[in-house]
Amino acid sequence: MFDNLQDKLDKAFHVLKGHGQISEVNVAETVKEIRRALVDADVSYKIAKEVTGRIKEEALGQKVLTSLQPGQLMTKIVRDEIARLMGGSVAEMDLKSSPSVILMAGLQGSGKTTHSGKLANFLKRKKTKKPLLVACDVYRPAAINQLKVVGEQIGVEVYSEEGNNNPVSIATNAVAHAKANGFNVVIVDTAGRLAIDQAMMTEIRDVHAAIKPDETLFVVDSMTGQDAVNTAKAFNDVLDYEGVILTKLDGDTRGGAALTIRTVVEKPIKFIGTGEKMDALDVFYPERMADRILG
Ligand code: GDP
């Protein structure tokens, strides 16, 4: 994850880390290299330009030119700017109500079912949470079975209604079931399509309106890069969601979605998925991720 960006940023700092005389030309050249590295990481040119514009301003303002350790100072400036790009501080879920309802939205294959399970597992481990998983994909029986398998694996009950093909009523009944049976978190897995279409958007909007989730999380495959960012925008227009789960970061060598979703959509990445197993879920800490990128 982020391997290419790490390498390229390292090379960009090469000049400033050397012992030669540092000049404004060196700084400009470094900034240009950073911009190239960001664009190669699938950050849009516009954002890469804005970010490097700020980096240059900071660098000149903080007197990188006269610093005894210009490389270190520049690394810190870039690190702070990248952390800011990804949202700065951590964004936690608000699960104060009981039951709290979490709605999972996203395209088919993005990792919704897997991450419904991972999230249930994550919450269950907190001891104070008793999650219920809800299968609302009425079009694909395989999806319901998949969630049941996941539920069994992590020891979490799965609510489903055979024969009911109305996701709004399944979700509403599930919340009532949770209330009656002492579950304090309800995680609703929904149907996704391969691409955005009106029927899917109407359905998820109706489920959203009926159960009024505390947290709507948009699940998206990080490997789809700028497409991930565009899909994130389209879902946010309809759902005004609380946050993003960025999946498959273990296979994403570029990192463009992780770097830019927050800035483009103005919604935080709350979790990242880093594998197929049920424990491959991490809270997203922009600062830590920036530290990692800058090595
Ligand atoms: P859904 O259609 O949105 O419910 O997507 P699924 O949960 O069925 O996931 C689609 C595929 O992606 C499955 O084969 C998952 O095992 C895989 N997958 C999901 N999340 C991750 C992840 O974070 N990393 C990796 N490597 N694979 C993942």
TrEMBL record:
Task: Please name the top-level EC class of this enzyme.
Answer: hydrolase
Q: What is this protein called?
A: Signal recognition particle protein
Assembly and oligomerization: Part of the signal recognition particle protein translocation system, which is composed of SRP and FtsY.
What would be the name of the gene that encodes this protein? ffh
Q: Name one GO biological process term.
A: SRP-dependent cotranslational protein targeting to membrane
Q: Where primarily located?
A: cytoplasm
Entry's EC annotation: 3.6.5.4
Q: Can you quote the domain comment?
A: Composed of three domains: the N-terminal N domain, which is responsible for interactions with the ribosome, the central G domain, which binds GTP, and the C-terminal M domain, which binds the RNA and the signal sequence of the RNC.
Q: What does this protein do?
A: Involved in targeting and insertion of nascent membrane proteins into the cytoplasmic membrane. Binds to the hydrophobic signal sequence of the ribosome-nascent chain (RNC) as it emerges from the ribosomes. The SRP-RNC complex is then targeted to the cytoplasmic membrane where it interacts with the SRP receptor FtsY.
Which superkingdom?
Bacteria
May I have one GO cellular component term?
signal recognition particle
Shown portion of the whole protein? 1 to 295 of 449
Which stretches make up the SRP54-type proteins GTP-binding domain? Answer: 268-281
**Reactions catalysed according to its record:** GTP + H2O = GDP + phosphate + H(+)
Q: Where in the cell is it found?
A: Cytoplasm
Which keywords, in A-to-Z order, does the entry hold? Cytoplasm, GTP-binding, Hydrolase, Nucleotide-binding, Ribonucleoprotein, RNA-binding, Signal recognition particle
Q: Under the GO molecular function aspect, what terms does this record hold?
A: 7S RNA binding; GTP binding; GTPase activity
Please tell me where GTP binds in this chain. 106-113, 189-193, 247-250
Family membership noted in the UniProt record? Belongs to the GTP-binding SRP family. SRP54 subfamily.
